[in-house]
Amino acid sequence: MKRIAVLTSGGDAQGMNAAVRAVVRGGLDQGVEVFAVYEGYQGLIDGGAYIRPMSWFDVGGILQQGGTLIGTARSTDFMTRDGRREAAYNLLLNRIEGLVVIGGDGSLTGANLFRWEWPSLVDELAAAGRIDGETASQFRHLAIVGLVGSIDNDMFGTDVTIGTDTALHRITEAIDAISSTAASHQRSFVVEVMGRDCGYLALMGALATGADWVLIPELPPQTEDWEAAMCESLRRGREHGRRDSIVVVAEGARDRDGNPISSQYVTEVLEKNLGWDTRLTILGHVQRGGAPSAFDRNLATLMGMEAVHAILAMKQEDPVPVIGMIGNRITRTPLEECLNRNEAVKIALRAQDFEQAAALRGRSFVDSFQTLRTLVRAEPHKRASEPPGLRIAVMNAGAPAPGMNTAVRAAVRLGLDAGHTMIGVRNGFTGLIENDLFELDWMAVNGWANRGGAELGTNRRIPTQSDFYAVARTLELNNIQAILLIGGWSGYQGALELYERRNQFPIFNLPILCLPATIDNDLPGSDLSVGADTALNNIVSAVDKIKQSAVAARRVFVVEVMGGKCGYLALMSALATGAERVYLHEEGVTLQDLVQDVNNLITGFSHGKRLGLMIRNEMVNPTYDTRFMTALFEEEGGDLFEVRQAILGHIQQGGSPTPFDRNFASRLAADCIDYFTRLAAGEEEAQSSVVGLLGRTYEFTPFEDVPRLLNRKDRRPLDQWWMALRPLARILAQPGPSAHPAEETLITAG
Ligand code: ADP
User: Fold this and answer.
1) C-alpha span between 611 and 544 (Å, rounded)
2) What predicted TM-score, i.e. pTM, was given to this entire model?
3) How many distinct structural domains can be found in the chain?
4) 615 and 705 part of one domain
5) Residue whose CA lies nearest to ligand 1 atom number 24
6) Percent of the residues in the chain that have a pLDDT greater than 70, as a whole number
7) Ranges of H-type helices in 452-584
8) The pLDDT of residue 739 is above 50
9) Among residues 122, 129, 269, which one has the least CA distance to residue 190?
10) Are 50 and 126 in the same domain?
C-alpha cells in the first residue's frame, strides 16, 4: 500500500486532531503517503482540493486544539450510491488504497457500507469508462479502519471514544461551578447533558460531581410515580444537611413507558412539588468545545498509530476493524460486530426493554449506576436485619493525590450502606500511631467528590520500631477488623511493613487493601493510580500556556515534571503536548545524548524552527539537572535560540481531580468495599492485597506477590506497561522523514 487517506466525519469531538496527526505521522513513518480529506465524506465526493497530501509539518501544533482542523460534515450525498461512486472515483483518481475514518456510529456505518460496495463501484466506474481497466484491477479493494470519535461514548468495541473524556471535563467543570453557587443560595439545579441514546455522560458526570439524581435513557426510573421518589430523596438530602440539589438529565432520558423526560419538565416538578427555587442549565455545545484533555490526546494518538498498523496489515477479505481501548489497552474489533451491538441497544430502547439496553452497555455501566444510586442517598438503606459488617479503618498515606477524597467518600458511603462501620484515620500512619481515629457517618464525606487534597490528612511517615506497638494498640483499642489504605508509595510500604510483622503482632493479620492514589503512577499491582490523570492534565495545560508564551521568540523550554524516578508523567505529558524530547530516569541521560540534542536543536532552529520543547522527569540525573541542561542549551544555542526552564512543582499535585480520577477512584473504592462485604459474609478468605487495573481487568494482587513486582531502589514497579509507548513518542517527535521546510515556515513543537 502506498497511499492512505484520513477523514473526520459526523459530530466533531475533541481529540480528533490528535488522531489525524498520528495517522499522518504514523503513515509517513511507515513510508506511505498520507492524504487528508477535508469536510468528511462530502469532501471525498467533491474531490479536488478537498483531498490533499499531508506533510509531517502540516499536522504540527494541532494536538491542543479542539474540534477537527480538517473539517467535518454531514453528507446526504454519501447516503446515496451515486455519491459513494463519486467518492470512490476521487479515491481512485488519487490512487488511495486505504481510508481511516474517524467518526461516530453513523460515519462508521457509512464506512462499512462503502467497503463492501467498493468492488461494484469500481466495476461501474470502469463500465462507464471513467477509469481504465488497469486501475480497476489494481484497486479492487479499499482497506478501511474506523476510529470512534464521538463525545457520547455510544459505541461498542471500545470502553471510551475519542472526545468523551474531554466532554466529561466540561460537564464536571460546569456542575462543580453550579454546585458552589447552588450551595450558597440553597438552590436546586437541573443540568441537561448530551446523549440521545446513551446515558454515559450523564451517569459519569453525575458520579464524578456527587450530583443528587440522574435520569438516563437506558435505566429509566422504575416506579410509576418517579417524580415523588426523586423529590422525596432530594428533600431528605436537604434534611440531612445538603445545601444544594443537582439533578443531571441526559437529553434522551425517558420514563419506563418510553416517554421522553425533558429537563424542563424535571425543573417544573422540583419547583411544584418541593417549592424550591430551581434553575435549569442546558450545557449544549460547550460539551464539544475546548482543548482536548490529556487523556483524549493520548487516546487518539495511540488509536491513530494503531490504525496505521491495522490498515497496512489488512488483507482483502479482512473485515473493517474498529480501533478501541479496553481497560487501558488498544484493541481491534470487527466493525460489523460493534455496529450490530449498537443497533441492538437502539432496538431494545425502542422496545422499552431497558434491562436489555443496560445489560448491552456492559457490567461496568450497570455497576456505575448502582454505585451512583447508593452514593446519592441521604442515608444508608434501612434493612430489616443488619447485614454482618466489619469495622473498617479508612486512611490516606503518602503525598496528597487528587481523587483521594473521592475514593474516601465512595468507600465510606458504600461501606456504611453495606453495613460496615467506617472509621477515619487522621494523618496517615501518624493517626494509627497516635490513636487519632474517628467514626465517619454518611454526611461526614458530603461534598468530597470534587475536592482536591486529602481531607483525612496524609503524610509520608512510615512506622518504625516502637511505632508498631502503638499501631497494634490502636487497632486493638478500636477493634479495627480491616484497613483500606488509599495512598502512594510510602503508604504501600507502611502497609507491607505491618504485614511483614504479622507473626510478632497477630492483629496485623487483619485484611488490608491498598488503593493506588499518587500522581506518580509508580505503584505495583495497577497500571494506573488515582491522581495521575489530574497531574497529567495540570502539566499539559501548563505546557500549552508555556508554548503560547513563546510565539514571538525562538525559544526552547526545558520543563521539569514530577514522578520521582518513574517516568510516567514525563512520557505521557510529552506525548500529549508533542514535546520533541523526553528524558526518563528509566533511560537516563548521558553527555553524548545531550550533545546529540544540542545538535538537533541547532539544525532545527537554523532551518526555521521556532519552538523547542523538552520534558524531563525530575530525577533523570542529579548532575545533568534542569538548570544544567538549560544553561548548556542556552550556551550552545548562541544567537539561534534562547532557553528557559519551567519547573512545574506542586501545581501538579493540586486542584480538583479530573473526572477520570474521580470515577476511577469511585470504581476502585466500590471494588474494595465489595470485597469487605463478601468477607464479612464469609464468602471470601481474609487476605491483604493491592488493588488496581491491570490491562483489561480490575484485580487484587496479594501482598505476598508484591515484593517481586518492585524495583525498590528506584521506587517503581519492575515492569511498567507504558514503557511500550516509548518508541511511539520517539516516532511522533522526530523531525520527520521529509526534508526541513523552507526558512520562513512556522514550526512549533507538536
Ligand atoms: P456520527 O458519525 O457522528 O454518528 P452521523 O450519523 O450524522 O454522525 O453520520 C455522519 C455521516 O456519515 C452522514 O452525514 C453520512 O454522510 C454518513 N452516513 C451515516 N450513516 C450512513 C449510512 N447508513 N450509509 C451511508 N452513509 C452514512
Assistant:
1) 12
2) 0.95
3) 4
4) no
5) 110
6) 98
7) 467-477, 489-500, 532-549, 568-577
8) no
9) 269
10) yes
